[in-house]
């Protein structure tokens, strides 16, 4: 692992919306938490009945508070185990292991205006962003889409604090974000930040590109969960071993279980750190990341083991 780990204790758990719990972590050694920038995330390690799970979660606490970190976790119905573990097995007083903060979704200092677009649990990285933007007097607005107000974590708090700069689009009230209207009226120098399910991100980015937005003004954060699939074996050429990837296990997890270290930052198919060379395969690579290009996918020379899978007779990678 690239970043050193921190042993923390769970000091508070709060239900903040339907199916969403907020967890507060403090260092077991009593020290200060590392400084982080708005938009950063941590990777939480979980010992789930002998299975090591590592899930990324955006930090939602104040960057000015070094006493603790806070994350929020949505209980996913078809969870591979991470969100279910956090909701069902983590209690106040438990010790856990987390990574140092990783910043893949930063605010851009040159922006004249910041438009934040959140979908569901995607609100979390925007809480520290809005705090910092507000304190520094920068211009921003939040558009927060949710299925219902019961699932709109922190909405009331945000509306009280930031007033008209917060707009809620609630599905069961007939609300819907008019993406084209929002993007077509923005002045030059505006940057867009989206944290939401991938279809919503694709929609916003698609409209922005149609309207001629520059790519450097478009920012997104999405953590893709490794999908389940048919079990398969993978040969690791450098290590001289073969690993078994179970139905609900990622290739990255199976490699780590074999004691082999693979670099990562997001574990969600976005950062590119775990990109691995494919030496040979007889079958089909199932690419589920958003990092590799279409040409790279077709070439069959790379795989992102954090989220991608394989179906076929044999797969050999460089590790």
Q: What is the helix content?
A: 10-25%
- The CATH topology of the largest domain is given as Rossmann fold
Q: How many H/I helical runs?
A: 7
Report mean pLDDT, rounded to a whole number: 95
The strand order across the widest sheet is 4-3-6-1-2-5
User: Class of the largest domain in CATH?
Assistant: Alpha Beta
Spatial separation of the terminal alpha carbons: 15 Å
CATH architecture of the largest domain: 3-Layer(aba) Sandwich
CATH homologous superfamily placement of the largest domain = Nucleotide-binding domain of ferredoxin-NADP reductase (FNR) module
Low-confidence stretches: none
Number of domains: 3
Radius of gyration: 20 Å
Structural class by sheet pairing and helices: alpha/beta
The major sheet is characterized as: 6 strands, antiparallel
The helix-strand sequence is EEEEEHEEHEHEHEHEEEHEHEE
Count of strand segments:
16
Share in β-strands: 25-35%
**Shape from CA axes?**
globular
């Amino acid at each position: 692992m690239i970043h050193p780990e921190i042993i923390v204790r769970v000091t508070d758990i709060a239900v903040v919306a339907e199916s969403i719990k907020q967890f507060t972590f403090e260092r077991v050694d009593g020290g200060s938490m590392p400084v982080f920038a708005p938009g950063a995330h941590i990777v939480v390690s979980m010992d789930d009945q002998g299975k090591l799970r590592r899930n990324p979660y955006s930090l939602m606490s104040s960057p000015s508070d070094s006493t603790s970190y806070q994350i929020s976790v949505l209980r996913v119905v078809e969870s591979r185990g991470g969100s279910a573990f956090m909701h069902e097995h983590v209690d106040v007083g438990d010790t856990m292991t987390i990574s140092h903060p990783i910043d893949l979704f930063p605010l851009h200092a040159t922006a004249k205006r910041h438009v934040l677009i959140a979908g569901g649990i995607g609100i979390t990285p925007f809480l520290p962003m809005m705090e910092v933007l507000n304190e520094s007097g920068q211009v921003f607005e939040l558009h927060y889409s949710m299925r219902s107000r019961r699932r709109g974590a922190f909405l009331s708090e945000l509306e009280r604090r930031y007033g008209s700069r917060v707009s809620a689009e609630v599905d069961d009230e007939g609300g819907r974000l008019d993406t084209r209207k929002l993007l077509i009226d923005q002045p030059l120098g505006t940057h867009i930040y989206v944290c939401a399910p991938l279809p919503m991100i694709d929609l916003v980015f698609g409209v922005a590109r149609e309207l001629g937005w520059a790519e450097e003004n478009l920012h997104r954060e999405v953590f893709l969960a490794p999908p389940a699939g048919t079990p398969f074996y993978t040969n690791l050429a450098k290590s001289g071993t073969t690993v078994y990837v179970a139905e609900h296990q990622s290739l990255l997890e199976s490699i780590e279980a074999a004691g082999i270290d693979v670099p990562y930052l997001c574990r969600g198919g976005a950062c590119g750190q775990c990109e691995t060379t494919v030496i040979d395969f007889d079958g089909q690579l199932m690419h589920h990341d958003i990092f590799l290009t279409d040409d790279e996918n077709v070439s069959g020379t790379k795989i992102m083991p954090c989220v991608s899978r394989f179906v076929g007779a044999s797969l050999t990678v460089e590790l």
